[in-house]
Amino acid sequence: MGNPNSKRMTFFMVLNAVIIISFIYLSFSTKDILPQKQLHSVGTIPMSRRIKHNNKRNGLIRKEGNYPSSETSKQLEVKRASLLHSNIEAAPSFLAYSTQQPKSSKSLMKSQQNTMLSSINGSSSVLETSSEIPALPLLIPVLTRTVYEPGHLNEELDIKRICMDRGLFLRLLVLITSAQGHFMARMSIRQTWMHYASRRDVGMAFVLGRTTNATLNESINQENYMYGDMIRGNFIDSYFNLTLKTLSMLEWADKHCPLVKYILKTDDDMFVNVPRLLDFIDGHKDTRTIYGRLARRWKPVRSSKSKYFVSYKLYSGLQYPTFTTGPAYLLTGDIVPELYTKSLNTFYMQLEDVFITGIVSKSLEIKRLHATEFRNSRTSFLPCNIRKAISVHMIKPSEQYNLWKSLLDSSIKCK
Fold first, then answer.
1. The domain containing residue 355 runs over which residues?
2. Which has the closest alpha carbon to 86: 43, 143, 52, 142?
3. What are the transmembrane regions (predicted)?
4. Cβ atoms 141, 67 nearer than 8 A
């Protein structure tokens, strides 16, 4: 029959082994669940600690435009988070990602435990990061209002010169998006076609974000003290924040220049033929309209190696709504408040022209009209070509002076 004590000991050893094996099995089976409850992330970028600026719950329970509706009870701690402060050179080095390859996304999340999400205003809520890992574009639907910080740094800005009497007598307001370090580009514009800002019916200003670089920030302060023409919003200035920059432009125009008739959004690598643009305005009396170079039936780029990459979760459609390309487009002043408000309540996309003039404008039933004068590309510098165009793209600072000379040379006759 055997020793009873020996049998009892054997029984308890087997029981303990079963308990230990069961515990180990349960631990592995919940491995993929627990981090989802503990990590807070934007896109696929997990946070190692909470961003202090926002503990508010945001449930995404509606459907905007062509985006899929989603519902979550997680804290989307991104109120002050910048969507990717990395520069444009970092964009091509994306790690491979596909929303249809969950194994890849898990690997990506693990490799980016220390990725930094900078706050919109560049304050102290900056997470530890490895300089070898670039920030990525947003990969999941997030309402724009959760990542946009309203307000502007208006110190040294000459608002009265840019938009007197809230734009009552202003025919045209030109707002030029510019990067922090593009001093030479801004100076070449100030010394050429920005000369038309001296007219009583034309206002012009540059639109920038913030920087965490103290030396660069001081340089920007001195530049704005000297010229008083730089509108600065509460977001980190980067390529992937261009939508935030355009929203900052719309917010400023709505607050400080609500009576202006037309607003041109353009970039600091553009040559703008202001006389031609004013003639264009005189010949068009439409309302609720955006004029520019129309892009029809453009398809989303699904390759994560492209800076134009948009995930299926962000936009599931086969093609974008018709939009005007971003280097330059003209807005009628009456649509600015609607565009700004609707954009805040639409799921964010880093492609500002697709987002503002395509998705949001379509939802508001705003007309988008093609105008051949908006070249929005590099073209021949023959004087007559320049005079027939409103906007020419990819212009170096040194080239602005040559085009300006061609525009003003009265000895050159064009048919």
1. 40-415
2. 43
3. 9-28
4. yes
